[in-house]
Amino acid sequence: MNSENPEITSLREALLLSPDNLPLRRVLADALMRGQCFREAAEEYKRILKHTSGDHTVLFALANALWRAGAVTETTMVLENLIRNHPKFAEGRLLYARALQHDGELEKAAYHYKLTIADHPELADLSLEHALRSQLEGEKRSGPETQRVPDGEIPENFEPDIEKPKINFSDVGGMESVKEEVRMKIILPLQNPELFKAYGKVAGGGILLYGPPGCGKTHIARATAGEVKAAFISVGISDVLDMWIGQSERNLHELFDQARRNRPCVLFFDEVDALGANRADLRKHAGRNLINQFLAEMDGIDVNNEGVLILAATNAPWHLDPAFRRPGRFDRVIFVPPPDMAARESILKIHLKGKPGGEMDVRKTAEKTAHYSGADLKGVIETAIEGKLRAAMKTGKIEPLNHKDILDAASKIKPSTREWFSTARNHALYANQSGQYDEILQYMKAGKL
Ligand code: ATP
């Protein structure tokens, strides 16, 4: 204390008399920084933050002090908080990239560094850039969990197909709650942009669909794009996962970029649960990075996701990382049950369209096909048609499809949704934190299964 510089000593004395004087404390903290007393400066910034928790300049000053004191983990934690609340604060993100690089989180560091300089090229840090490039290259060649990139071989870029679907909601039987949610999130905001903007809402967002297989999750995603004449990009997460560390993250980034370039766009992720960090088939490191990348893309930090509707589907929502359900991400999570009577009737009619039909009691077939998925019902019609075709080849006569043909075909196809419920039941009964599977329980309680 005796060797302390006089400015710091007198600031400390002044603060003893007026300990609540925050501007004065800030002057002391900054003086401590100049005097290279980083630990002490950090303590002073922390005291200030107790009274002004949201001040990003103080948070950044604290992160800087911790960083210069060599407390890298603490620096990272402070910066995570800072970036979450102030995503546009470029200096904070740059320091975050440096801390991550120091901690060996190279992919993440590279991602945040790129985000920083995309908007602020003046912040380019050539030594960080160089270090990242050579370390990433080194990791690719020697990392124990990493597949070595063969010499001269560059991993191919992931090229998603961009469709313009021809089907729309009239091709989807039932699923009224999904249709309604899609209307609110994308159709109406696109039709009435001014009105929605006035209430701070724009077209886009995320909806997660879950339920037994074959019940129309992919089908309605495609029909949503057709309904609003939007582009449609459909990907299975396993298409995105790549053997090369870091390549999956790039694939994911590329996908979101494609969607943003083609807005309005419906970006559909099937089997999104494959992103779950606890899955045995994913190396933990790659899994966590990929999830973080996915969340960062969804949060739309420094990019605009307006006009991009992100739909995701899973048959195993219990494997999904809880971070996906936070507001602003998949804030609507919709259970897609097997079609009810009315929905089965309309699904049968949809798949009978354009087929040579005779006497038909679709309602009766709908009554007799409880627990059939949409895909099962489509299979029923296809089986009936095949039977007719076989007969026609023998006789040379085209006979119309009738009610009996369909019932016969239904008796050959077993409903596929029961099996899913036997797994779902366990999760809904024993792992139903915050009531997330109440809809499954209600469905089962209502005796529908
Ligand atoms: P998975 O979980 O296995 O991916 P899914 O829920 O995504 O299944 P889809 O792939 O959408 O199911 O359904 C398979 C096919 O079944 C669709 O291509 C469509 O032809 C038919 N189908 C399913 N549900 C409906 C529906 N509600 N209306 C019309 N057709 C449907």
Task: Give a structural overview.
With 449 residues, the protein is α/β, with parallel strands linked by helices. 56% of the residues lie in helices and 6% in strands. It has helices at 6-17, 22-34, 38-51, 56-68, 72-85, 90-103, 106-119, 126-142, 176-191, 193-198, 217-227, 237-240, 247-261, 284-299, 341-352, 362-367, 374-395, 403-412, 418-430, 438-448; strands at residues 205-210, 231-236, 265-270, 308-314, 332-335. Strands 2-3-4-1-5 form a five-stranded parallel β-sheet, sandwiched between helices. Strand 3, helix 14 (284-299) and strand 4 form a beta-alpha-beta unit. Helix 4 packs parallel to helix 6 (90-103) and helix 7 packs antiparallel against helix 8. The longest helix has 22 residues, at 374-395. Residues 143-155 and 277-286 have low confidence and may be disordered. The site of adenosine-5'-triphosphate has 20 residues, from helix 11, helix 15 and helix 17.
Question: What distinguishing features does this structure have?
Answer:
single chain; 449 residues; alpha/beta; 5-stranded parallel beta sheet; elongated; binds adenosine-5'-triphosphate
Tell me the radius of gyration.
Answer: 29 Å
Helix and strand element order: HHHHHHHHHHEHEHHEHEEHHHHHH
**Largest sheet, if any?**
5 strands, parallel
- The total count of strands amounts to 5
Report low-confidence residues grouped into runs of 5 or more. Answer: 143-155, 277-286
Mean pLDDT: 84
Bound molecules: adenosine-5'-triphosphate
Could you say which overall geometry the principal axes of the C-alpha atoms support? elongated
**Count of runs of 4 or more consecutive helical residues:** 20
Q: In percent terms, what proportion of residues is strand?
A: 5-15%
**Percentage of helical residues?**
55-70%
Backbone structural class: alpha/beta
Distance between the first and last residues' Cα: 76 Å
Q: Major sheet: order of its strands?
A: 2-3-4-1-5
